[in-house]
Structure prediction request, 128 residues.
Amino acid sequence: QVQLQESGGGSVQAGGSLRLSCTAAKFTAPKNCMGWFRQTPGKEREGVAIIEFPNSDDYYAESVEGRFTISKDDANNTVYLQMNNLKVEDTSVYYCVLRPYSWCLNSMLRNRALFAVWGEGTQVTVSK
Prediction:
């Protein structure tokens, strides 16, 4: 199974920025959907943003649209999440996810079961 390595979490004040990175050790499929989910204690795990490899179609949760940007480095199997204008409610554990042999669809943000591969998670804390 593909291993995912996340980095970039941390603490920031509201209005600040953070950038998350996630690298897949290798892709075993010619097309992949990769991105980020997050989970706050007491809440369901929710999709944040996803992007296709090798195409570049991407999708965002409404709650982060216009503030977060997902991007990728095809050569290094890496996906990034640039988070700007962070809000206290963005505080969460962010998980990198991968669905091999699949393009991305917007509806996939609402179905975590579609993603077979998960990273260990990285904490993002936004304070007032």
The chain is about 0% helix and 50% strand. The first strand starts at residue 4 and ends at 7.
